[in-house]
């Protein structure tokens, strides 16, 4: 019989609807039950594409004895961290403070008034791998609740008070200087992996905020080493096993230092941020191969993660049923089964050309994954770029042209073969914030290619449809509130600070890509609402929540740019863009709020490692405001020629707009009065380059425009 979770829309909660555990969703019914029965709460937090969440479910939550103990001694509650990041952050803060680490699944035991007294992440059912057994922990905590409850309650009260004290706001000092940011770049250089790219050792996570900070500093100072760290890292990620070389997109992270062996889930927020990093690298290096990786990733999102109405789904799982187990009753899903290959499969698919594919992608008879008892695919092959085209030609005894011809068609043939396999689970909820990031990625992709490139039109159309989806499905116009989640026709959960920040980012990128003032209007409205609901006018920055929900015990600010950027870091970038757009007192207000937020957290070079996207915003702030406007119809050759020059320059801090004379310009000028004076000289498409709204002479010649843009760089590469 299904439990209460069967009535919930969350894909993660629905995965547990048939557990023998008598789960409750987070809410008053569960809290009242804990008080009524005088029992502690067992809180389990995860998400639907989490591999170790699946493992713990199978091992423990489908275990009859464990379920009986949970049902009779505790009140078990399930939370989807992607839907309720507010709840997740409170208890993750506790787990990290008391154990030194965190992750999912997260397991926390609470008093009936929701205060935590014990916690951790994954627990095996019985003691192994140096981890205490879940069954033993349940028994011990149940006994302690009966025999020494006062001690547990006192401990929980003390922990919460200490965490609250630690969250007390502090006012920032001075604005970070050039020297502070330069020293921040050195901090990255000290941990840069010269051999494999990336920072530190295994495991390696994509953390695009780091790369964007280094690129911003390269743009500001000309530091070649900062750019090179980014390029080396992105090349390693693009050629390693973390990238899906068959279907596009990137897996969650690499379990090894060499980007070879991925954890196979695919998250929307990773795709969005990595696209932005690859696009910026393409401009900074003038290397179209980075653009090609971004395009491949966008194609994956359009094909596999797109709702029919235009929004984007959240993720794909790491686990699936192995192809050779399809007809086995109750077959067990395994990690990576959809993505790995046996050598015999490659030989059957490619026949005489199999050697070319084997050499290119590192295929070995016994599998190419490092031998690891935790791997479920050590006898299979993970595709990665093992050899260059020249090396493949040498090893296979073929010409480079022959090798290229085979490899050009290989991904499609592999893709078609893979389509016959059982697919991983798709988490089909649409989250406002993650969609905002993806809109930013598609819109940026449209901004940085020539107007007459088909990719520009496709990317812009995709971004517009997604923004329209958010507007129709996740915007409560009566209350003026953003909603966080849409799934199966149902929209709910009031948006958090990150939802507002990420959607504003997407809308501002979209406005610059297409020029539709509708998106600027909505971005301004959402920014004002974020400031009103979440802003801290006393010490600066933004809280993650409104503080109105009494069941969320801590009123937190997120000062860490991790797998997802923090709301504050993104909001500061948004304010700087809005300031570039606005001018006058409004721009000063935006700048002052941004400066307070920067000063609060970027207090030392080490901050660049913690909040790299905020440090990137600080770099943009120090670089000053610049605006680049082309006045001309988009389809006119002169406009295309000027815009082609623009996209050849890496100007990460510049606002860029194409303004069509007539109705469009008039509509924009009512919102941005400074645009009204910009006219097409002699009726020709005209470029205006401005710094702090003081403009150079307008130009119609692409070469003259190029010369002006060079002045924005303002440094010699070093």
Low-confidence stretches: none
Largest sheet: 5 strands, mixed
Fraction in beta strands: 5-15%
Instruction: Give helix % range.
Output: 40-55%
Q: Indicate the mean pLDDT.
A: 95
N- to C-terminal separation?
Answer: 67 Å
Rg measurement, Å: 26 Å
Number of strands: 20
Number of helices: 27
Q: Which strand order spans the largest sheet, edge to edge or round the barrel?
A: 1-3-2-4-5
Q: Quickly give the structural class.
A: alpha+beta
Shape: globular
Write a concise keyword list for the protein shown above.
718 residues; alpha+beta; five-stranded mixed beta sheet; four-stranded antiparallel beta sheet; 27 helices; 50% helix
A few lines on this structure:
The chain contains 27 helices and 20 strands.
Any overview of this molecule?
50% of the residues lie in helices and 10% in strands. Strand 19 (686-691) and strand 20 (694-695) form a beta hairpin. The relative contact order is 0.09. It is built from 27 helices and 20 strands. Helix 17 runs antiparallel to helix 18. A five-stranded mixed beta sheet has the order 1-3-2-4-5, sandwiched between helices. Strands 13, 14, 15 and 16 form a four-stranded antiparallel beta sheet that branches. The protein is an alpha+beta fold and 718 residues long. The longest helix has 20 residues, at 454-473.
Annotate the secondary structure layout.
Elements: H1 11-15, E1 24-25, H2 28-37, E2 41-46, H3 51-61, H4 64-73, E3 75-80, H5 85-99, E4 106-110, E5 116-120, H6 134-147, H7 149-166, H8 178-191, H9 208-221, H10 224-239, E6 253-254, E7 262-263, E8 266-267, H11 268-285, H12 288-304, E9 315-316, E10 319-320, E11 334-335, H13 343-350, H14 354-361, H15 389-396, H16 400-418, E12 426-427, E13 430-431, H17 432-447, H18 454-473, E14 475-476, E15 481-487, E16 490-494, H19 497-514, H20 517-534, H21 567-582, H22 584-601, H23 607-610, H24 612-623, E17 626-631, H25 637-647, E18 654-659, H26 663-671, E19 686-691, E20 694-695, H27 702-713
Parallel strand pairs: 1-3, 2-3, 17-18
Antiparallel strand pairs: 2-4, 4-5, 6-7, 8-9, 9-12, 10-11, 13-15, 14-15, 15-16, 17-19, 19-20
Helix pairs in contact: 4-6, 9-10, 9-11, 9-24, 10-11, 11-12, 11-17, 13-14, 14-15, 15-16, 17-18, 17-19, 18-19, 19-20, 19-21, 21-22, 21-24, 25-27
């Amino acid at each position: 019989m299904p439990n209460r979770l069967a009535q919930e829309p969350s894909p993660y909660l629905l995965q547990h609807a048939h557990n023998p555990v008598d789960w409750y969703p987070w809410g008053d019914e569960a809290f009242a039950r804990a008080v009524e029965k005088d029992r502690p709460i067992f809180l389990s937090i995860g998400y639907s594409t989490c591999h170790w969440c699946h493992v713990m479910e199978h091992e423990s939550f489908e275990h009859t004895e464990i379920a009986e103990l949970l049902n009779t001694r505790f009140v078990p509650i399930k939370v989807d961290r992607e839907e309720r990041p507010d709840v997740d952050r409170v208890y993750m803060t506790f787990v990290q403070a008391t154990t030194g680490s965190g992750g999912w699944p997260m397991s926390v035991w609470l008093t009936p008034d929701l205060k935590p007294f014990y916690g951790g992440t994954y627990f095996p059912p019985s003691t192994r791998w140096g981890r205490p057994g879940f069954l033993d922990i349940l028994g011990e905590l149940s006994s302690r609740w009966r025999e020494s409850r006062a001690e547990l309650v006192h401990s929980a009260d003390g922990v919460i008070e200490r965490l609250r004290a630690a969250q007390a706001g502090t006012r920032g000092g001075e604005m970070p200087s050039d020297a502070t940011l330069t020293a921040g770049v050195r901090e990255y250089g000290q941990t840069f992996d010269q051999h494999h790219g990336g920072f530190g050792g295994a495991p390696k996570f994509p953390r695009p905020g780091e790369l964007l900070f280094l690129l911003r500093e390269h743009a500001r100072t000309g530091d070649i080493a900062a750019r090179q760290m980014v390029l080396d890292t992105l090349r390693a990620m693009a050629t390693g096993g973390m990238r899906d070389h068959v279907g596009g997109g990137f897996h969650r992270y690499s379990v090894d230092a060499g980007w070879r062996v991925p954890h196979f889930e695919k998250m929307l927020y990773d795709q969005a941020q990595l696209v932005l990093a690859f696009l910026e690298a393409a401009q900074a290096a003038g290397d179209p191969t980075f653009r090609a990786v971004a395009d491949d990733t966008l194609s994956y999102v359009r094909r596999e993660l797109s709702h029919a109405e235009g929004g984007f789904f959240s993720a794909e799982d790491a686990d699936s049923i192995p192809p050779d187990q399809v007809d086995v009753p109750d077959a067990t899903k395994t990690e990576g089964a959809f993505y790995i290959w046996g050598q015999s499969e490659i030989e059957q698919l490619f026949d005489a050309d199999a050697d070319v594919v084997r050499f290119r992608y590192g295929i070995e008879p016994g599998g190419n994954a490092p031998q690891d008892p935790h791997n479920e695919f050590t006898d299979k092959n993970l595709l990665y770029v093992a050899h260059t085209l020249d090396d493949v030609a040498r090893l296979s005894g073929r010409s480079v042209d022959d090798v290229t011809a085979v490899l050009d068609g290989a991904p499609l043939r592999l893709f078609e073969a893979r389509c016959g396999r059982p697919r991983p689970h798709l988490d089909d909820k649409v989250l406002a914030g993650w969609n905002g990031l993806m809109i930013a990625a598609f819109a940026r992709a449209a901004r940085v290619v020539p107007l007459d490139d088909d990719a520009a039109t496709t990317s812009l159309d995709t971004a517009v449809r997604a923004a329209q989806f958010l507007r129709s499905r996740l915007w409560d116009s009566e209350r003026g509130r953003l909603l966080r989640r849409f799934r199966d026709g149902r929209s709910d959960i009031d948006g958090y600070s990150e939802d507002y920040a990420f959607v504003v980012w997407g809308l501002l990128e979209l406005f610059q890509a297409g020029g539709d003032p509708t998106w600027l209007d909505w971005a301004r409205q959402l920014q004002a609402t974020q400031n009103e609901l979440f802003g801290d006018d006393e010490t600066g920055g933004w809280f993650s929540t409104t503080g109105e929900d009494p069941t969320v015990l801590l009123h937190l600010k997120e000062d860490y740019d991790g797998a997802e950027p923090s709301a504050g870091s993104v909001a500061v970038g948004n304010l700087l863009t809005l300031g570039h757009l606005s001018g006058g007192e409004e721009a000063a207000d935006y700048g002052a709020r941004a400066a307070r937020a920067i000063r609060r957290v970027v207090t030392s070079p080490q901050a660049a490692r913690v909040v790299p996207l905020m440090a990137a915003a600080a770099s943009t702030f120090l670089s000053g405001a610049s605006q680049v406007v082309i006045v001309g119809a988009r389809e006119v050759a002169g406009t295309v020629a000027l815009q082609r020059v623009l996209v050849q320059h890496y100007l990460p801090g510049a606002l860029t707009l194409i303004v069509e004379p007539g109705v469009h310009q008039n509509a924009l000028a009512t919102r941005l009065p400074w645009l009204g004076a910009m006219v097409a000289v002699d009726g020709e498409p005209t470029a205006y380059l401005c710094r702090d709204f003081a403009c150079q002479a307008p130009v119609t010649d692409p070469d003259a425009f190029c010369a002006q843009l060079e002045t924005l760089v303002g440094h010699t590469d070093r």
